[in-house]
Design brief:
With 253 residues, the chain is mainly α. The chain has one domain. The chain contains ten helices and no strands.
Length: 253
């Protein structure tokens, strides 16, 4: 970890090098199961379960807006039951994973960076290293694994709520019946729609938590340094989500 923190590369190449080194260190630290295994459940609760309310809040209004926009777009040109198709496809494959990932990048990424940054500037990380703890296994691995596991679960809740929200909006505001909405929802549905979004969400979770850990452990300069680390973690987490979103679209679609 000291070697990772000593890297001072600049620009895109330096950033990619730091992230790659951190990922390799995490893979090596997976062997130390006795260190990270007792911590992972608590991290899954903090990073995943506690994030469900914000994900559901976003999903509710995403479903409402999509249903209304679909109706406006299709007016006079496409049968109204296609609202179900657009709401289902868009939420499952794109807006559900991406908007949930963005929201969690703010909540989870900043939380991790602030926590680890505080530990770094108060020399708690140095104390762990002095006590012969593997800081990768103790601090990074449980958070990254928890993010990779819980982001798809939170996203699944958000997708379900978003589709239900769109259905309720369509039935009550668009003069669309329930059978018509579900006819559109089934029309172009493929099982790939579900797992594509969840695979993306899993990679988003790994990226966001890794960025938070990396920026937190590189924090310097007291409270201001911790604040800068939290800000960078959120920005880099959101950028990683957008890059991965494009990557999976190219690879899997």
């Amino acid at each position: 970890m000291q070697q990772l923190l000593a890297i001072r590369g600049t620009g895109l190449g330096g950033a990619i090098g730091r992230v790659g080194s951190a990922a390799i260190d995490c893979l090596r630290a997976l062997a130390d199961v006795r260190t990270w295994a007792p911590l992972i459940v608590a991290q899954m609760r903090r990073l995943g379960v506690d994030s469900v309310p914000i994900a559901i809040f976003i999903a509710v209004f995403t479903g409402i807006v999509l249903a209304l926009l679909s109706s406006y777009t299709f007016t006079g040109a496409v049968p109204l039951y296609f609202v179900g198709s657009l709401v289902g496809k868009t939420i499952m494959m794109e807006l559900g994973p991406v908007l949930t990932g963005m929201a969690l990048a703010g909540r989870v990424g900043a939380n991790i960076a602030a926590e680890l940054g505080t530990m770094r500037v108060t020399e708690q990380v140095d104390a762990l290293e002095t006590l012969a703890y593997d800081t990768n296994a103790f601090l990074i691995v449980p958070r990254v694994l928890a993010g990779g596991i819980m982001f798809p679960i939170v996203t699944a809740f958000a997708v379900a709520v978003g589709v239900v929200s769109g259905w309720i909006t369509a039935v009550n505001l668009l003069d669309l019946s329930t059978p018509e909405f579900f006819k559109g929802l089934r029309l172009f549905y493929q099982f790939k729609d579900v797992w594509f979004g969840l695979v993306k969400a899993g990679t988003f979770g790994l990226a966001v938590t890794l960025m938070g850990c990396l920026q937190g452990l590189r924090a310097r300069g007291g409270a201001q340094g911790v604040g800068r680390a939290a800000t960078r973690a959120v920005v880099l987490g959101c950028e990683s989500i957008l890059v991965l979103d494009a990557f999976w679209a190219i690879v899997l679609l």
